Each structure stands twice: as structure tokens, then as C-alpha cells.
Amino acid sequence: MEDPTCIAPGVCLPTRPVQRFIDPVARFMHVEATSGIALLAATAAALALANSPAADPFLAFWKTPVGLRFGSVDFVHSLRHWVNDGLMAIFFFVVGLEVKREIVVGELRELRQAALPIAAALGGMAAPALIYRLLQGDGPAARGWGIPMATDIAFVVGCLAILGPRVPRGLRVLLLSLAIADDIGAILVIAVGYTAEVHLLPLAGAAAGVVLILLLTRAGVRSLLVFALIGAAVWLGFHESGVHATIAGVILGLITPARPLIGRRLLAGFLEATGAYMQGDDWKDSRRRYQLTVSLRRAARETVSPLERIETVLHPWVSFGIMPLFAFANAGVTLQAGGFTDPVALAVIAGLGLGKPVGIFMFSGVAFMTGLARLPEGVSWRMLCAGGVLSGIGFTMSLFIAGLALEGAALEAAKIGILTGSFGCAVVGMVLLRWLSPRPAPAGEV
What is the pTM of this model? Predict the structure, then answer.
């Protein structure tokens, strides 16, 4: 990673001693593949504690009531609720930012380019849900049909990083675009499939907050504090409306501007004029000098879109803080031999391990045969099927939907199915991709 304090050889900002400790950590946290390691470590820790003598206090800890009381107004929830509905709203906000970026400037911006990952994502959601529903019938756990639908992008990225350059770039882009499209589907599932009752007054308040943000954005307001306060009010409105509060995060992410206000040419001209001013006598005027440095800071800041700036800042906090904490709070399940053969666990495993690759393969085939899409360069149908197996890693979103859909013994069984199915898909998918992907040519060989 290049030194961000240097713009050219010999032209560097002065460094602070503390940067020697901060910079290596910052570089590590911006390597996306390593977030899967943190997620895996948190899951292992939760499983170890839930199956140890400390299981009872560990599980009871997440039921600790936390909140505020103002007279007769009571806003108190369990610690797990605050993690799942509060902190995960920030996770979904980042998901909304990623979706917006892909639609505006990424792989989903052109229909022809996006047709294959969208078709694959649709198949990868429909087939797992159908398999789960067929295995569960009309039983009490039938509401869990959304559990095996989503792909965990953090673990998929980690697996692809382990495989290295053996995986063709076309397949990497396809799988990551598929996961983004998958997230859109999962968001719709949460909003439509798991909203029991809607209270219109707080929902209208949340909608008014969204409109206010749009108006302030058009007016040129750039204060993150202002938007954070309004965003918190929007979250509260959704929370009280009955629509899951994390949907607020997605909407706020989708309305974040993805285009910079100032282009590169304008900034270059501004810098050139600033350089000429700095070499003149007027630079001695302290007030004018301060005004110019403020303008220069604003010009440099506005060449980066709000979406890119916020996503860059929040991504490591979400990847190494919120997602591992979510896993630590939700993956603690008591492992018993009978749990692996529970009908709910088997339905989840079948949905992830069988439904994902079958659905992705079939819908991709239909898109290909109808001329809507074509396979990326260097990707065969066998490799696409192997990638479909890897996409069966559901984990984060699957655990989240399971918490919305089920409770009690059914929820515990679903968690076992998620952990088992995701682990199996990761191992089998990586083995298949390593076997099917061409070995990279040695250095210097054409």
C-alpha cells in the first residue's frame, strides 16, 4: 500500500510518531479479505463459550436490558436487540452504499453487463427458498424460507483471496456482483416477508426525514453530523413503525450521492491558481491565507463523492467491529448430535448446499440461452457451478433472517444448519475451484 502522505518523491507531509503504530493497523483493516478472519474468530469464540461451563452467563449476558426511560416513555431492549437492530443498521447502511456504487459506477450499471449476476442471484435466492419450503411444508418453521437465500460477501472474498490468482478475474467479478445483487434481494425479503404490522405515523416521520436529507443534499449541505442526527431519527421512525429498523440503513445508503461535486479538472485549475498565489506577496496576508486553505480543503474534499468517503471510513469498522460482534452475539449455539439431524437444520443445509448452486446454474443457463447474458472470459460452466457452491456461504445475512423468522428450538436448529451448510459450501467450493481453475503460468512464461 502506497504512503498516502506522499504525493511525489520528496513531496511528503510531515509524519507523526503515532503513525508508526496506526498505519500498519489501518492497512490491515482495509484488506477486505481479512475481515473473514475476524468473523470466523468471533464465531469460533461464541461457539466455544456456548458449549463450555460459561454457557449460561454468556447467553444470559446478551439478554441484559439496556436503554433509556423518560417518565412513562420506555425505550429499553436487550443487548442482543441493540446489536441486531442498532449496530446492524450501520452494516445495512454500508450495504446500501455498496449497492448504490455498483448501480451507478460498478458492474451493475449496464443491463447487458449486469444480466448474468442478476439472473444468477435470482436463481440463488429462489431455489434455496423453494427447497427449504418443500422440506418444511406448512410447519411452524416454514417462516424460515428466507434463511438460505443470501450470500455472505465477506467470507466469499476471504475464500477467493486464499485461492489467489488461480480464480479468473471474470469469475471473481461475477461472484462479487452476484453477492451484491443477492443483498438487494435479502433486503426486500426482510422488508416484505418479515414485517408483521406497520404503524403509519412513525413510518411517515421516517419518510419525512428521508425527504429532508434529500433536500439538504440538493441545497449543498455537507455536514456529516447533521445527516447522522437526521439518520438516527429515520432509524427510530422505522424501529417504531414495525418495519425492520435496518431497512432505514439501506435507504440512507441508497440516497447518498455517488458523484463528486468537483471534478479533477476544476481541482487541477484551483491548485494551479493556489500555487501561483502562494508564490506571491499576497501570501503574507494571514486572513486571506486562511480563507484560501479552507477553500483548498473543501475543493480537495469535494473531489471524492460522499458515498466513497463514507464507505471508506465505515468499511473497516463494520468489517472488524460490527460484523464480528453480531456473530459473537448470535452464533453461540449449543451443539448436540440431534441438532444436526433436526428438520430445520437439514432444510437450511439443503437450501445452502444444493439450492444455491442449482439455482445459480439454472438461471444463468436461461439468461445465456435467451441471449440476455454471456459467460465472462475464462469462465466455464463447471467453474460457474463451483462458484455457485461457494456462494452457499450464507452466514451473516442468514443468521440475521433466522433471528427475524424463528425462535426457540427452531432458531437454534437453524443456526446449526447455517454454520454447517456455510462451512461445507466454503470447503467444497474452494476445493472445486482449485481443481477446475487453470494453474497460473510461472513468472516470465508466456
Answer: 0.81
